[in-house]
Backbone:
């Protein structure tokens, strides 16, 4: 099941790239601009095939995104069927079509999830209270933080990070149930069921008696310190309000993403400055801040792997969030991305009323591309440090 979900997640992620670039493709075709290449991933090219429509389908080696190559992509090109010869509105539609497709994809996925069961991942997550029903709750686990020497748990062989499941026949799901079960079987020899390394195991323990704990402020019958961990999230279902919930979550997640990007940029700035100046504190702070906010291809695959051990709702939610993030990133004025090209075109054509020169356009895009490659390397390094 987990492997199938992981494979499905990777396929859906690649699908997001295809959908994004398909938006550019359709908008260009409808706007009378000729398409020369439609590529999944970046060069070097691993596979290419000429289609009946005259454009080339390409699969690249670098899973950093994709692209649609148009005829005459420079703003000064004037040949018929070229991007440069198109009017400002057509160019805007072509550049914004990928963002639109990702937004629509995110909206549809979130709407379907609202119907099927939306995982609650934020405390104040948007919902319509009158049309919301909790259909499943996340499971609580009791994890051993400390096992005291010469106490019943230690003598039975229990260790730190074991997940306590049952004492005798009584399930242990939280602090209260542990206290009740421990007191119920105080002084008795019982079977303790626990999980270690994802395998269920049992041990025999003789709990401390009630008499031995009299006078103690915090009596302990098993001899452990614990933490209560919630695994999974509550699933909440909506009916008629599903489209409203999807729209509300788009706004809520967009704001959270922008806040995260701001923190990530600040962290990456500290990381780069710390590395350049030798300031270890700044470098470590930057790495920590960036690690908590950004992920590259390595991080995305690792997240998909982690989510694959949960359920399909979480997988679809992660795909929806990635789609939304792709839309947001391609709206921002980042050179070499859709947003950068769109803003450059709007400024030159809309404000200065003249085309962007080929030299300026190439220099800006080249600088943006090298910055993106540099950030990709840094983010890959952060991902490796975080997951490995």
Residues:
């Amino acid at each position: 099941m987990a492997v199938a979900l992981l494979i499905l997640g990777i396929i859906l992620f690649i699908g997001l790239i295809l959908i994004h670039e398909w938006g550019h493709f359709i908008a260009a075709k409808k706007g009378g601009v000729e398409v020369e290449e439609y590529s999944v991933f970046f060069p070097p090219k691993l596979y290419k095939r000429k289609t009946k429509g005259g454009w080339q389908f390409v699969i690249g080696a670098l899973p950093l995104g994709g692209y649609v190559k148009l005829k005459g992509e420079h703003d000064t090109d004037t040949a018929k069927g070229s991007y440069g010869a198109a009017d400002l509105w057509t160019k805007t539609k072509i550049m914004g079509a990928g963002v639109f497709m990702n937004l629509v994809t995110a909206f549809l996925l979130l709407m379907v999830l609202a119907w099927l069961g939306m995982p609650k991942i934020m405390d104040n997550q948007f919902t319509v209270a009158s049309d919301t029903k909790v259909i499943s709750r996340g499971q609580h686990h009791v994890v051993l933080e400390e096992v005291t020497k010469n106490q019943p748990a230690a003598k039975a062989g229990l260790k730190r990070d074991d997940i306590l499941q049952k004492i005798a026949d009584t399930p242990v799901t939280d602090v209260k149930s542990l206290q009740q079960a421990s007191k119920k079987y105080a002084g008795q020899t019982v079977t303790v069921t626990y999980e270690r390394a994802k395998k269920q195991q049992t041990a025999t323990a003789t709990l401390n008696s009630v008499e031995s704990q009299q006078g103690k402020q915090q009596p302990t019958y098993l001899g452990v310190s614990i933490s209560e961990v919630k695994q999974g999230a509550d699933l909440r279902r909506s009916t008629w309000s599903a489209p409203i919930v999807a729209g509300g979550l788009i706004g809520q997640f967009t704001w959270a993403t922008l806040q995260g990007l701001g923190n990530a940029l600040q962290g990456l700035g500290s990381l780069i400055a710390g590395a350049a100046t030798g300031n270890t504190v700044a470098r470590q702070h930057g790495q920590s801040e960036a690690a908590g906010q950004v992920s590259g291809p390595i991080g995305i695959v690792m997240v998909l792997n982690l989510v694959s051990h949960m359920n399909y709702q979480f997988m679809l939610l992660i795909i929806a969030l990635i789609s939304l993030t792709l839309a947001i990133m391609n709206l921002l004025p980042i050179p070499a991305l859709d947003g950068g090209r769109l803003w450059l075109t709007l400024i030159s054509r809309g404000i200065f009323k003249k085309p962007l020169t080929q030299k300026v356009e190439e220099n800006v895009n080249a600088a943006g591309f090298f910055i993106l490659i540099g950030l990709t390397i840094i983010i890959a390094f952060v991902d490796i440090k975080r997951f490995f």
Summary: The first strand starts at residue 35 and ends at 50.
